[in-house]
Amino acid sequence: MRAYWYDNAPGDQRLPHDSGRNVDAAELEKLGVIYHRIEEQGGVDALAAERGYRNRDEITVSPDKMGATYEDKVRGFFHEHLHEDEEIRYIRGGQGYFDVRGRADDWVRIQLEKDDLIILPAGIYHRFTTDEQNFVQAMRLFKDEPKWTPLNRSEELDANEHRKAYVSQFGK
Ligand code: KMT
Ligand code: NI
């Protein structure tokens, strides 16, 4: 894992967009983002038990798996949105970027690779993309009924109770 401020330069979303300014773990924590490196299967089981995630599945985001829909899917993941539940992703292969909004509303890019696990809190604005290798495999952990519907950013959404709870806890 490496986190840094996104450079906001034009160009494909899958490029690194690396401003060269790193974001440390303390800063991520202030945004409510939790990161773990987990190299043993037992570690994931323990975390799942602790947080009440009883279910899991695996997703592979690649042209091989998704065929002609791949480009559309990747563009879709990159629309800024939030969820009413935590989003937990445990990377099993390949790489990808989660971008989350910092407190001044600028993007923090979080680069993830195999054995990286990330928990995005409910209500945080974020987006996802593969990188130039166009391949990521991830385990998705969830409770019984995941509320993963992406709610795209809008002014009305600022009144959403999960958004308001996030803002009151983390300040944006
Ligand atoms: C998401 O919610 O954006 C995804 O599941 C993307 C693929 S998992 C790294
Ligand atoms: Ni999401």
TrEMBL record:
InterPro entries per the record? ARD (IPR004313), ARD_euk (IPR027496), RmlC-like_jellyroll (IPR014710), RmlC_Cupin_sf (IPR011051)
Binding residue positions for Ni(2+):
H81, H83, E87, H126
Reactions performed catalytically: 1,2-dihydroxy-5-(methylsulfanyl)pent-1-en-3-one + O2 = 3-(methylsulfanyl)propanoate + CO + formate + 2 H(+); 1,2-dihydroxy-5-(methylsulfanyl)pent-1-en-3-one + O2 = 4-methylsulfanyl-2-oxobutanoate + formate + 2 H(+)
The organism's superkingdom is given as Eukaryota
Cellular component GO terms held in the UniProt record: cytoplasm; nucleus
**KW Nucleus (keyword) present:** yes
Cofactor mode of binding and number, as noted: Binds either 1 Fe or Ni cation per monomer. Iron-binding promotes an acireductone dioxygenase reaction producing 2-keto-4-methylthiobutyrate, while nickel-binding promotes an acireductone dioxygenase reaction producing 3-(methylsulfanyl)propanoate.
Q: What is its main location?
A: cytoplasm
A Gene Ontology annotation in the biological process aspect, one of them, is: L-methionine salvage from methylthioadenosine
The protein's required cofactors: Fe(2+); Ni(2+)
Q: In which pathway does it act?
A: Amino-acid biosynthesis; L-methionine biosynthesis via salvage pathway; L-methionine from S-methyl-5-thio-alpha-D-ribose 1-phosphate: step 5/6
**Residues the record lists as binding Fe(2+):** H81, H83, E87, H126
Q: Which UniProt keywords apply?
A: Amino-acid biosynthesis, Cytoplasm, Dioxygenase, Iron, Metal-binding, Methionine biosynthesis, Nickel, Nucleus, Oxidoreductase
Per the UniProt entry, the Enzyme Commission number(s) are 1.13.11.54, 1.13.11.53
List GO molecular-function terms, semicolon-separated.
Answer: acireductone dioxygenase (Ni2+-requiring) activity; acireductone dioxygenase [iron(II)-requiring] activity; iron ion binding; nickel cation binding
Pfam family name, one: ARD
Q: Which locations, inside or outside the cell, does it occupy? A: Cytoplasm; Nucleus
The UniProt record lists the keyword Cytoplasm: yes
State its role: Catalyzes 2 different reactions between oxygen and the acireductone 1,2-dihydroxy-3-keto-5-methylthiopentene (DHK-MTPene) depending upon the metal bound in the active site. Fe-containing acireductone dioxygenase (Fe-ARD) produces formate and 2-keto-4-methylthiobutyrate (KMTB), the alpha-ketoacid precursor of methionine in the methionine recycle pathway. Ni-containing acireductone dioxygenase (Ni-ARD) produces methylthiopropionate, carbon monoxide and formate, and does not lie on the methionine recycle pathway.
According to its UniProt record, which protein family does this protein belong to? Answer: Belongs to the acireductone dioxygenase (ARD) family.
According to UniProt, the name of this protein is Acireductone dioxygenase
Which organism does this record belong to?
Answer: Anthostomella pinea
Q: Which gene encodes it?
A: ADI1
